User: Fold these one by one.
Assistant:
Number 1:
Amino acid sequence: MWKFYYDEAFHDRNITVKKDIINIYKENSSDIYVGFFCGYKDTKESDVWVKYILFENKYKKIYTIDKDKELKATIIKKKNYKNGFASFVKNTVNFYRDFFEILNDSEIIFHISLFSKTELIIMEFLKNINFEMKFHEDAFLYSLTKLLYNYRIPKLLKKMINIKEKNDIEKVLIILKNMIKNVVAEAGSSKKKVRETNALKQLLIILDTAYITNFKQPQMSWRYEPIFIGFNKLLCEREINRTDVNLLIDEENNTLEAAKKIGNYHSCNKGKSHESIGLRISDILAHFFGELIVALECELKEEIILEEDFSKIDYKTKKLLSHKWFELSKEQFLLWQEIETIFYKYQLYEWTGYDGVFCDYPILVFALLEYIFNYKTYEDFVKVKAEKHSEYFNTFSCKKLAYIFKRGGSEPVYIN
């Protein structure tokens, strides 16, 4: 029998607008929902738990946490992630080094779910719209989600979230098409934006054929079924029967209901993290990836457009990770390398990760981990200036994105 434990980070049960603020875009929030499964055979559990208890006791002392209290992932403060591994202080480096050492084992299985909340807003909006032409639906959804994520206009997104009737959809369509026209007009002279503006022109062609028939109220509650669709794909790939899986989920009724609905596992229950070492491990893993993604988002996203003045956007400067992400100590470099080695040696399966159509940041976080494998030693790494690493990583991650889109056939091209 197998035992799997699931926890999540940056979970919003509903996408809402309160006090004129969209909850998923608030400070310390993330567009990406992160869920993490960690599992092993029941015969392996005692070995993992013994190692974890030693780790936990050590860091409770370091962080002055009472013995009776839980060691939470949030003990690592957000400022540690600002520049990725390069901003990890000594205690953070040691914490993650010791933590991942527990998981450096071929008998331990990971699965990570990464889904965009902006994509859900767009999907619900599109449910009420039909088109007079055929096109690649995933490519269309990707391009539209990326547009509204990157050029974040609160006014437009709030209207999408708060649609109440058919007339609201018509108004949003007009605003959306005007927005795209403005971006194309302003970005048209930028060489950096050629591919983007071509995709946006295609979006306009498609949106010009849009029409609305029956109205269905958009639902802004989170979807939990895709989490288990991805997990089940990994189980199949790893040749693990679902009926051999005992799954424990951190306290969340919606997640549990979805697991029971489509899982067909031997058992499926919810538990409390302070009573389960397995849940505490998944909590740390979910937050590790979630916080790295938040740091990437903060570094690479465009400025929020408050006045719908698209001329204020910098269309010419290439968005790169700061050179500070690559100014590493030897200890930080080795930690980065050790974590990627675990994924490379033991988790190199197609369905280790599962995401939605808008997958830029899921791909980016794994590209970040993988980038370190371009350098065998710390000495090789520091031979390259940090500013060059920023450029090289940009090229490396763009190739990763291009490969995923080519494999999935998601070229943003319409069909006549």
Note: The chain is about 50% helix and 15% strand.
Number 2:
Amino acid sequence: MHEVKLALLGVLIAANAAADECTKIEVPAKLEHRSSHDAKIPDIVDYGEPQLDGFYGKLAQVARTKQGTLRIGIYGDSNWTNDRTAGEIRRRLQLAYGDAGHGFVAFGIPWGWYHHQNLQHGTTGTWDVWNIATMEVRDKLYGFAGITAESSQPGATAWVETAKAGEPVGTSVSLIEVWYLARPKGGTFEVVIDKDSKDKIDTAAAAPELKVLTYKVPDGPHRLTVKVTKGSVRLFGAVFERDKPGVIVDGIGINALSAATMTRMDPANQSAGLARRNYDLLIDATGTNMWAAQAHPKLIVKHALQWRAALPKSSILVWSAPDFISEGTTSSTPRMKQNSRERIQGSKDAKVAFWDQYEMLGGYGSMPKWHKDRWDTPDGVHMGPPLSAYIGERFVYTVLADLAKRVEKAPRLGCR
């Protein structure tokens, strides 16, 4: 009996010691992506201090104890629809602290370049795809990610699959969700995972409502297919996650997204989705498409309030937009200097955090330099793969440097 008690005590001591482990925060000694145009990397400024405490507390827990899941949602414009910058952030955080799954991806393909990194997805057959910025739908029921797809063609499919073998992250999933709209006169669809039919769903309902189907599968590579069987079916997206500690980054990229267009969603529909995703950090990385100087700060406050209503404990961070080249010239657009000031003012008014991407890239006159080196795209507005990676790496560096400073002040941050 004494031996059993001593053995149990040893197990408890070992378990407590493991739970009490509190690793250091490793900030990269040097950056991989460098250029002759490197500028000073600005700190994140919290105008709602201690508004970021919740995010850094969860990040510290995941980073230092390898427990829990950190969730980040990033709303961006056409520089984000290809998921390059979000993908860079996702990969770096997941490789460092754990791959907890890809997160949310819209079923519809609104633009040919809408493609998430380290994930495979697409459609077959005929689909109408709407979004809040460039192709609006009358009922405003886009889901929280601002994109919705509808088909009435029997046999049309929307599919999502884990990343190809050998990719650094995204190759496994153990929890799959299907997000769709239940509504009057809704049609039916079939859910297939790999080659197994899991469900036949009737979307008819008395009133429009977000519905979510959840399926647990063995952790590993899987393919989800949603097939229309009868009537008209409206889909929002899929979630791929894992029952493992780590990081999830939802890249929500929508062409022409701005502080103005973000307020076009049905509030209840948006709030239901945000509440379910339960982000620790929400990022507004728009700004390029916002030209109404007087309205800009007010609109930032408006959508920040909408986010807070859905997720009162979530931290919120606004980025300034990058410089870009005026159409038909080789010079920067002066408007973006004012745009950056507006986003700072909006962040102050909304009492949220701010990161100055504009100055990080070199401020006014920076895009012609990046353009000369071909780090952007030929239009002088959008980021090419090198510049997307550059931005993503520097944001992760900034976050980790800030976290390290917080750990210096509170050595047990994130630990039991």
Note: The two ends are 31 Å apart (CA to CA).
